[in-house]
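Researcher: Next sequence.
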Amino acid sequence: MKKIAILILLFTLTTLTASARQKEAGNMIKVEVSETVELMGILSRTAGLREYNMDMAGQYTQDTEAWFAPYKGHPIIAYYQGLHNSNGISYDAVMSMAVHLEIVKGEVKFVGDKADLEKRWQNVDIEDFMERINQFYTDTRFHKFFQAHRAFYDEALKTYEANVMTYFHQDWYPQFYGTAPTEKFRVVIGFTNGGGNYGTNRHLSGQAKEVFAICGYYIDPNTGKAFENGAALSSTLIHEFNHSFVNPMLERETNNMLMMPIGQKLHKLSALSMERQAYGNWQTVVNESIVRAAVIVYMMEQGYTHKQIQDELISQLCRDFAWMPELVTALRHYASHRTQYKTLNDYYPELATTLNKYLENEMRRAQESLK
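Model: Next structure:
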């Protein structure tokens, strides 16, 4: 009887563990391919936008050129080139539109609110654009092209899951921040995007806001393979998901008022460099700073090598986030004093203090040089 009881207990524990794993797996982020991301990417490539003409996808690039080159004279192309020249539709603006499109019964439809689109789309007649892109979608037999490459997409997604997603530990975020995510995070491979990675979002009525990390696809010319350096590629995901936790904190009135004068000084101190990176306001500079510091802490806590962590820190210094060492030190202090600070929001005033002290020290150094 004892043996039977033990066997029953073991079976029950095994079943519960398997169930928990299945539940956990169901909540994990799955990597996707998106027909509308490919549609916007290929339209941009056909129109000659250089960031969508890196041509780094091997046979897929060749297939794309062979299929769509005959349509370079399509009516939408000159129109779209005009949008690029007059409105600056390029880079992340392209992907912002892509996530606001859906294919429904063979028709491309716009979903969501135009106000949520990247600002470069705000003066564009969306209805006119939708008529034109539907014509392009139909005339090029785009869906047939997409379906013909389904096996290729699926194999690439499996490779990304195996090589890159193993470095992405979703459960770290609520543990570190002390709060549950308020947004749904999605990872999409942009097979026409080459080395370009873009973060964008959409908020459909009645649903949680969705944050997209659209990661480029390219084949290493030395090995003939894609997604080999998983540790380095994972930094894009780690970065973007941090925004889901960091950005809402600055939206709180108390934090916003506290950080505003500090953020304005930081932005002014590095305005030229930040604007070249499309960080045109103090709020973006503050959020990017905390996110980038959090990425480094993530790497330290998840067992990355010293060289990988050091390279990441140097990369941020090269981008003129000169206050990164101070922020990393502050976040590590927070992480080691969680009995005192239940959430990062509780610690937010200390982050403001850290950045303010950095500014004071910089001003002091400047003044000393003039004595």
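Model: Residues 1-26 have pLDDT under 50 and may be disordered. Residues 37 and 98 are 5 Å apart (CA to CA).
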